Amino acid sequence: MKRRYLPIFVTAVLAGTAGCFFSPNANSQSGPPTVTTPAPKPVDQAARDLKNQVPLDLSKLGAPLPANLWVELSKLVNPAVVSITTTQTPKRMQARYRDPLQDFFEQFYGGRGPGGGQMPEQGPQEAMALGTGFIIREDGLIITNNHVVEQADVIKVQLDSTSKKLYEAQVIGRDPRTDIALIKIDAKEKLPVAKLGESKNVQVGEYVAAFGNPYGHAHTMTTGIVSALGREIAEINRFPFIQTDASINPGNSGGPLVNTQGYVIGVNTAIDARAQGIGFAIPIDNVKQIVAQLEKDGRVKRGYIGVGIATVTDDVAGQLGIRDAKGVLLTDVMRNGPADKAGLRPYDIIVNFAGKDIEDAGGLQNAVGDTTIGSTVNVKALRFDQNGKRSEVSAKIKVDEAPNDVRPSSPKQYFGQKAPFDLGFKVANYSEELARDLEVRSNERFPIVTDVDPSSAAARVGLRPGDMIVDVNRKPTAKATDVLKTLRKGANLVRVIRGNTMAIVTLGR
Fold first, then answer.
1. Is the predicted pLDDT of residue 322 greater than 80, yes or no?
2. Hey, which residues are catalytic here?
3. φ/ψ of residue 44, rounded to 5
4. Is 317 found in the same domain as 227?
């Protein structure tokens, strides 16, 4: 289901004269303003008032931070932070080196990165995006954001900003709803790891540092404080965020937010592009909840009871004779789903699920989604008959797995002959079935590309499954074997049809 995003904050800025405010009397004559100075307090009274106004116990503030705190923190954390570069071959290439999440914010808040605007359409090309991750296990297991890797064909990881060596990463698991992903590299050695802390006791005002790869500036460290807690932005993430004024920029996504003890307390995830110093991190306690499941199953399994829901509004509550607009109205109950089998009906209002009072639709979604698959829970609901008579319904629902979380079957594998010289594609003879499956939109009949290795020379020039090869090195190719025997080591001129477009690409070196 396509997710619709809405603007998150509305910010009002009041501009005024800096440093002072004047409230002149409209009826006064022009002249210098007069200032009335209050009589001074007696010394002993002033001392008592000052003591009463101090809200802090200075003896509990602790020792001042060491002068080299950030230096030592950088030495401790940076070795476990990695820079991530992803590539894909989209229909249209945008400005290079973009954090994918930047597109989301720019949709509402405007603005572009350096260079401004999108690059003009140039045909199929490599698109690149940057992100950050941090190593949590010596064998190369890395936490990052889902939005950093979800569209990637190839994921490369750089351990050290001074090294040109890149490791290809494998996606172990990812979860779009929480925006967390696990990837892994094989560095053939034990790697430094970041220490995972706790976020439950984080307080507003704590010093923190954010690490990442902003705009390609690898291993950048910025400092600030925790500005707020529990920022709920449901359109982006299942968990309320930690807000910080430590600078977070495109490319920081997936990096660690660290406290002064060197423990990771959050994963840098989002920014408010309208402002300076408004960044968001997923609390590490929530991240730890799903990491084991991502490694085991590759995804997060979420509960499902088979209902359509809506929050009870004041209007609905009034019509049903309910005093408080609380609970969730069932707008639909799927046939043979868990709720249907438990006896729930449309227009029932769920007020309690598994012992938790339900205030609104979001509360029910979270309660169901967090319930263990296969477990049976008690549900309380209100039911009203045609005459408005109210009754209470108790039901036991066995929570199933959400259909969209069920791992799809393996994609269909198309036959084809492998191109020589490690060019990275397969080609097959034209057939009506193959053309239909690969959505070939052309009346021509030429050999069809059936597979392209995303890290290959073929992918770099934009070759895709469904392309038809007209000729190679100016020699016609009626069959797949014609393509294979005409290709040569080195550069090849290949003429390709895609839809109503014909292009010539140089394939190979």
1. no
2. 147, 179, 253
3. -70, -35
4. no
Q: Which residues contact 37 (CB under 8 A, 6 or more apart)?
A: none
309: domain CATH number? 2.30.42.10
- Is 212:81 a contact under the CB 8 Å cutoff? yes
What are the CB-based long-range contacts (under 8 Å, 24+) for 7-14?
Answer: 7/108, 7/109, 8/108, 8/233, 8/235, 8/236, 8/272, 9/272, 11/274, 11/275
Is residue 117 assigned to a domain?
Answer: yes
- Which pLDDT belongs to residue 238? 67
In the predicted model, what is the mean pLDDT of residues 356-361? 82
All residues at 6 or more sequence positions from 264 whose CB lies less than 8 Å from its CB, including other chains: 134, 194, 195, 196, 197, 256, 257, 258, 284
Q: What percent of the chain has pLDDT over 90?
A: 17
136 plus 86 within the same structural domain: yes
Amino acid 464: pLDDT: 87
- Same structural domain, 307 and 291: no
Sign of CA dihedral 426, 430, 432, 435: positive
136 vs 19: CA distance, rounded Å: 49
Q: What pLDDT, on a 0 to 100 scale, did the predictor assign at position 234?
A: 60
pLDDT tens by residue, 191-228? 999 999 888 888 898 999 999 888 888 888 999 999 98
- HEC assignment per residue over 378-424: EEEEEEECCCCCEEEEEEEEECEECHHHCCCCCCCCCCCEECCCCCC
Sequence-ordered list of residues with C-beta below 8 angstroms from that of 408, at least 6 positions apart, any chain = none
For range 402-425, the mean pLDDT: 68
Q: Which domain holds residue 191?
A: 80-299
Residue 391 and residue 471 in one domain = no
Task: Specify the pLDDT at position 115.
Answer: 36
Instruction: Give the residue from 405, 431, 466 where a domain finishes.
Output: 405
Residues 375 and 458 in one domain: no
Tokens 């309690």 correspond to: 352
